[in-house]
Amino acid sequence: MTSMSLTQIERREQQLLRLLAVAPYLLLATSATLSMITGTGTWGDRLISLGLVLLTAVWMWTMSTRRPGGAVYVTGLLVLIALLCSRDMWFAGFFGFVGYLHSWQYLRGAWRFVGVIATAAISVTTFTGGLPGPAPAAILVHVLFIVAIVAVVGLFSSIGDVTREHSAERKRMVARLEETIRENEGLQAQLLVQAREAGVLDERQRIAREIHDTIAQGLTGVITQLHAADRAIEVGGDGSARRYLGIATALARESLAEARRSVHAVGPPELESTRLPDAIAAAASEWSGRQGVPVEVNTTGDVRPLHPEAEVTLLRVAQEALTNAGKHARASRVGLTLSYMDDVVTLDVRDDGIGFEPADAGRGGGFGLTSMRQRMDRVAGSLEIESGPEQGTAVSASIPVLAPEPSEERRSTDA
Q1: Which residues fall within 8 angstroms of residue 361, CB to CB, at 6 or more apart?
Q2: 110-141, pLDDT tens digit by residue?
Q3: What is the CA angle 394-399-402, rounded to 5?
Q4: Rounded Cα distance, 396 and 385, in Å
Q5: Helix (H, G, I), strand (E, B) or coil at 342
Q6: Element holding 337 (H helix, E strand)
Q7: What is the three-class DSSP state of 335?
Q8: Which of 217, 397, 203, 399 is nearest to 308 (CA)?
Q9: What is the pTM of this model?
Q10: CB of 46 within 8 A of CB of 36?
């Protein structure tokens, strides 16, 4: 739209310039034709007039291509206009207008009015049949005619100047606007690239969290069960070995299912048909069965549906905290408490294991605590960890209450 407007402006200006360039010749030809048709002089007088017409046309053409200066051109033009007007009144009626036009176009400052006054004097003198007599009234009328013509020409010429200035300003504004649009398009393209890169990074982090919180934990469990089965075979416990192998097989299948869900960004199956407290209790019971460590799960407050991402975050934090307790804490007892309050929901996971120094967490290259913190940051939550050597570990996750989507709320209610 903006480019089209600028093109239209330029096209109109080009049309106007072409018209202004051709108009003097059309007016000269019109005046000459009327003079030849209506003239009463001899053929010699007509040839002289025709010669002046040709000279005037050559003067205008030559000066338009090799103009030495506006004053020289306008002076020569006014002399030729005066000679032509002296030959026939038709030149004053039509071609005399060119004197006003070119005086204002090619002269500057007060010299414009000098050219306009000279042209008006030539035209008025021609129309009145010569210079006025010595009578003051005749002189005054003659002068008033000239003044009136100069005033009208000056007024309309000034209006034309203002219009051209406004047109030039509009062109500059449109050009600046187009430049701004191009800059904005470049900025938008840059922002799209950055957004795409941020999206790729976010997706990588999501997949990394899902792999750690589900697949990696499952594979760790598979390895643990296979080691247990190997030890059972060594001592001749075939029944125990088969049980460990069965658990390893089940964990491998679950890991495969989680891998597929992670690729397609599907939520955990535990939350598809059950509420969050039940899903956390089921995950704790399953972990307890594998680890042989008793787990106590409590829920306080009025249970209500949360935003799906908030529920997934709390479930994954619970699973990660239990995994850490089984891998590192050597705990004999674990407790989970899910608390529903007015504006927040908190999950507390405590064990009586060996503990650790929180300042040293993550130095070994582990991803567990980092994954939990990233998940909490995504839902504007907070994560606090309290631990110390031989003091056990307490993980506390707090998430603001986010209302679920209507479809999610109906799903939770139906469950």
Answers
A1: 369, 385
A2: 888 888 898 888 888 888 887 877 888 888 88
A3: 160
A4: 6
A5: coil
A6: strand 334-340
A7: strand
A8: 399
A9: 0.42
A10: yes
